[in-house]
Amino acid sequence: MKITVVKTVKIALSCFFLLLNGIVGAASSEYKLGPQDVIQIKVFDLRAGSGEAHQWTAFDGDIIVNAGGSISLPLLGAISVNGITVENLGKLIAERMQARIGLAELPSASVQVTKYRPFYIGGAAEKPGEYEYRPNITAGQALTIAGGVYRLTPSNRLSFDRDLTTQHGEINLITRDNVGLLMREERLNSEIEGRIKFVLADKFLPMASQPEYSNAFKAEELLFEARKSSLDYQVKTISETKMALAKEIEALDKKSQSIDRQIELTQKDLNQVRDLVSKGLSVSTRQLAAEQNAAAFENTRLDIQLARLRAQQELGKLSRETIQLQSKMKQEAITELAQIQAKLLQNRAKENTAASVMKIVEQTVKSNGGLNSNVSYIIHRLSPEGPKTIFASDDDLIEPGDVLDIKLTE
């Protein structure tokens, strides 16, 4: 009798889960779970003693698949569900329950998707954005939900014309700005390389006759000559000062040689006076005068040596100033060049953006907002095997997480 009851309960549970899966929908049996899906899990097992069905209420409630494609369950912990079907997830949960808790028999586990992850519509749709998924929805139905294709109205046309004018103006401003920046870049390169004259690079020669290039070149040429003249003047001034110091050192050297001869003669005279004084043939006052004379010449020699040392130090300082002056100007040019190149990159990005906006606006206007255009569908789908691009038709099914791109063609 007990065995019959257990079998009856098992049959009842099986029927219950079959009915539950039928409610969810046979079309979703092969549906593969992914981030943002909301699921419910029901787990039952038969108690060995009473043969009664026991529901594990710990799994009750909505469970959201996280961005990493996993769920976290009581008793079982984290489970990766990305890319697996609800049927396989139910089997996986049942097996883990039996292994973790030590159940005698495999429990019955059912997984139901209560809310699918959204899909997205972009491109030439009237209302692009995120939409809630509905089972068995087609590309054509999805476009209808998004308000159909975008229709160009007179007010929109006026807005597009303004956008085109604005972007044209933006590109013209960037182009003029780039001309000046490119000429400045050339001038800075000339300064860094130490060129004597600023000349245009070969790549700019075909454009040299254009007024904007010609004017920008002349402005940078004048600046190059002014900066070079300023540097040359400062270097020349330092060079002249160095030449004067060199002549001063030369004069001091000659004066030092003359003093050395005077000291030599004075020393001989002093030695003779000392000899005479020691023999009593001369008075000591003469010796004192000779010694004072010798000391005076020694002091003069020390003054000359000190003056020469100072002149030599000043000469070395001026040499360093020349190097520092040239290095400073080169470093300033390098710093400014980096700023110019960064500005050119920024302008290039702005120009590309403006050109892209113009292209989109022109294509929209050309297609007349779908009035005389054919609609095509492109589905971008992220599958376990990787991203897929599908060229679809009206009747092709959309899946949760898809990005439906609406295109208009002539």
UniProtKB/TrEMBL annotation:
Pfam families: HH_AprE (PF25994), Poly_export (PF02563). Residues 1-26 form the signal peptide. Keywords: Signal. The keyword Ribosomal protein does not apply. It comes from the Bacteria. Residues 27-113 form the Polysaccharide export protein N-terminal domain. GO terms for molecular function: polysaccharide transmembrane transporter activity. This is Exopolysaccharide production protein ExoF. Residues 179-354 form the AprE-like long alpha-helical hairpin domain.
